[in-house]
Automatic annotation (TrEMBL):
Compositional bias annotation for Low complexity: 51-67
InterPro entries in the cross-refs: Beta_helix, Carb-bd_sugar_hydrolysis-dom, PbH1, Pectin_lyas_fold, Pectin_lyase_fold/virulence
SUPFAM superfamilies, A to Z: Pectin lyase-like
Pfam families: Beta_helix
Domain Carbohydrate-binding/sugar hydrolysis residue range list: 159-313
Protein name: Right-handed parallel beta-helix repeat-containing protein
Highest taxon listed in the record's lineage: Bacteria
Length: 507
């Protein structure tokens, strides 16, 4: 798994969101890194500065948990029946001093924190809440100081189904702050300063369906800088989604994460990503990779990708390193979803490192050694052994054995670029639709410029009715073809019908 833009190498409680102006989180140890002063963003889910307070007294029938008794929470969970509510008194709660000590909820348990209730792993315990019990609820807790291993998580470690996590601060942990199961509700939380991800939505036994991520502040995650430690791992960012079928990602403030803000990687489907503010992330605001059918709308996307975009430009990499990156992903009517396209509309992208790139790696398909998705195949092929010669050279396998960037519709967006704000001279001003020249493996039926021609002119990808402010350029087919707006709109590409261009913006 992982991105292939590195050059050319092969019942829910109703949620009341507090929407306030941006000022950033106050935490200094792992919060936002400094950026030039900018105008305030639109209203955002500012959760970390003003978290909601839990009940000051134990609700009727709740079991009180004492912070002065180490292990009291886990012990009382074991000794009480399913559907018990636990109320954690104010103070710092601890587990037993064993790395595997954790709370294992029973079906339907609820855990409520009083004001000031903290569950602290003291850099000793790996997991806070685990097990497979469904329908567990966490509210008003702070969970911190746990040391989950790489690719594992602290809360809902075993990806149990139907959990509700609301008004909770999950911060300063190793690994992922939380994992996700099917029908999980993640609402109005502060997910801050975790070592790898805020959210790792992965369920090995699958399927992971019906995920809601709403009104959270996701800030300063990937403090371990895993992409530098394991180059090309594709294992970093604010939130990562794997094989999720049906997700609503809305109203979140995703900012100042090291790496990408939101990253959907490998056989995700039916995403709605809407009304989020994505800003000041070191990498792309959003990556949608080897996945299907999504609506990306009404998001504000500002000042993303300055660190990673500049890093690769300084290395001489000519790839159009984008802030919204659609990689081997497209609309597919045969995969059931609320849409049969990837539709990107009514977003505002302002002063990011480049805009939107649609990319397809000609060498990446089922059974190819260049497929970085850990042996995964597309959702269109049941018997993956068929994706080999000679059958792969003929339809339907020729089309179905590869993830295709197709049926992507980019319209009614506003793209603003002022190079004096981004502080760049070149390579930060690109919109792109392209592929590489297919060469590998030697039995590949996709060699040459076949895929580049298809993504550019044959797979129904189009831009139209957008507004551009600034010195935008357009890359088509391969990185060597850089067009001005009039060439982009003219034959043979004929993109951006009904769009307007204003050459203002520092260059």
């Amino acid at each position: 798994m992982g991105t292939k833009w590195r050059g050319w190498a092969v019942p829910v409680v109703p949620l009341a969101l507090v929407l306030l102006a941006v000022t950033g989180c106050e935490d200094s140890s792992s919060g936002p890194r400094a950026k030039p002063t900018a105008a305030p963003s639109p209203s955002v889910a500012r959760v970390c500065d003003e978290p909601a307070a839990g009940p000051a007294k134990a609700p009727a029938g709740a079991v009180p948990v004492d912070p002065d008794v180490p292990g009291d929470l886990a012990a009382k969970t074991r000794s009480n029946p399913p559907y018990t509510t636990f109320w954690l008194r104010p103070g710092t709660h601890r587990l037993d001093p064993d790395r595997y000590a954790q709370v294992v909820p029973k079906r339907g348990n609820t855990y409520l924190g009083a004001p000031g209730a903290v569950l602290d792993g003291r850099r000793t315990n790996q997991y806070a809440f685990g097990g497979t019990a469904p329908g567990v609820t966490l509210r008003y807790l702070t969970v911190q100081g746990f040391v989950a291993p790489h690719n594992e998580g602290v809360v809902n470690h075993d990806s149990a189904d139907g959990w509700v996590i609301e008004h909770t601060t999950i911060q300063h942990n190793s690994g992922a702050g939380l994992m996700a199961g099917a029908r999980q509700q993640i609402r109005a939380n502060c997910l801050r300063g975790n070592g790898q991800y805020a959210i790792n939505a992965y369920k090995g036994a699958g399927p992971l369906t019906g995920l809601v991520v709403e009104g959270n502040e996701i800030v300063g995650n990937n403090t371990g800088d895993w992409e530098r430690r394991r180059p090309g791992c594709g294992c970093t960012g604010g939130a990562k989604f794997w094989a999720v079928d049906g997700a609503d990602i809305r109203g979140n403030w995703v900012h100042d994460n090291r790496g990408a803000g939101l990253w959907a990687d490998t056989n995700n489907n039916d995403f709605r990503i809407e009304g989020n503010v994505l800003e000041d992330n070191d990498g792309a605001a959003l990556i949608y990779e080897t996945s299907y059918n999504a609506v990306i709308r009404r998001n504000t996307i500002r000042r993303n990708n300055w660190v990673e975009g500049r890093r690769y430009a300084d290395k001489g990499d000519n790839f159009p390193f984008a802030t919204v990156y659609v990689s081997e992903s497209g609309g597919e009517p045969r995969v059931p979803a609320r849409t049969d396209r990837i539709e990107v509309y009514r977003n505002v992208l302002e002063n990011n490192w480049s805009g939107i790139t649609l990319w397809e790696n000609a060498d990446r398909f089922c059974n190819s050694p260049a497929n970085t998705s850990s042996g995964a195949c597309t959702l269109l092929v049941k018997d993956t052994t068929r994706c080999a010669q000679p059958g792969i050279g003929t339809q339907p396998l020729y089309a179905d054995c590869r993830w295709r960037t197709q049926r992507v519709d980019v319209h009614h967006n506003r793209f603003v670029l002022d190079k004096s704000v981004v502080d760049c001279a070149v390579k930060c001003d690109r919109m792109a639709v392209l592929a590489n020249y297919g060469t590998y493996p030697d039995w590949s039926p996709y060699q040459g410029d076949t895929v580049a021609q298809a993504i550019t002119r044959g797979q129904h990808n189009r831009w139209h009715h957008n507004v551009y402010v600034g010195p935008w350029k357009f890359v088509v087919q391969d990185p060597s073809r850089i067009l001005d707006p009039w060439q982009w709109q003219g034959p043979p590409y004929e993109q951006d019908a009904g769009s307007t261009f204003r050459a203002r913006g520092g260059g």
